[in-house]
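Continuing from the previous page...

OK, I double-checked the sequence for D-methionine-binding lipoprotein MetQ against my notes and this is the correct one:
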Amino acid sequence: MRSNRFLAVGAALAIAAAGLTGCSSDSSDTSSAPADGEKVTVKIGTTDADQLAWTAFADKAKEEGIELDIVKFSEYPPVNPALDENQIEISKFQTINYQAQYNATADKDLRIVGSGEINLLGLYWKDHTSLDGIEGEEVAIPNDPSNQGRSINVLVQAGLVTLNADAPKLTPTPADIDAAQSKVSVVPVDAAQTTSAYNEGRPAVINNNFLGRAGIDPKTSVAADDPNSELAEPYINVFSVRADDVDNATYEKIVEIWQSDEVTKALEEDSNGTAVQVKRSKEDLNKILDNLTEEYR
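Thanks. Re-ran it with the corrected sequence; updated structure tokens here:
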């Protein structure tokens, strides 16, 4: 285990929890999936309620006898405390990595009932369509903790960077790179500056949030992380519940609905093709969660 590097996250969570407004926890019994003709209401929290995928999700759920009472959050920190305090029943807003940080810093045990999508992180190089000629280049990567390790692993998967033998597999830093064995070097910059590096002609790993603002087509990446790779596992978006609800049949049905063709099509439109649905068992997902939580403690 390593020392906790997320004290600031923990403080933010504590503030968020203290500032939560009261909310009724009364709801219909959702422990089993609705029978034919039966209706249940499920209170679900998210930061993405305005996306097309959520409209398709709610419509499809209604067809299946599940009324989604969507609780909208404007930012991440209050959502997990709301779930812990029974103000919502289930959430869909975070990656496994974010949930692991929360469990570790808040000393909680939120679990995962199912997987959603992964938003691919790509390497972009202006006026290039492949990695040809990239050897010796400096690659700009985001310097924030949540994206830096993942960006380095994008380069690892592309065969451009080699890590030291003792480097953490899922959360490497630039200090973990074996420069002598690597084809490129990295330069950490503010995430918003990665597009500037790209426009200057340097290769850059760019978060999806900044692609649209800079007018960069997500489909022009010269490399991206593999959604089926172990290195991408921490970044799978998940449905989170309290530990007692991990086997709740209605919540399992909700996960199944999210994976439907209707929601997947809307999700692709929302993300301009950078979101890929991932189907993993809850046993696998919770094992990944537990391993990451131990790293953050």
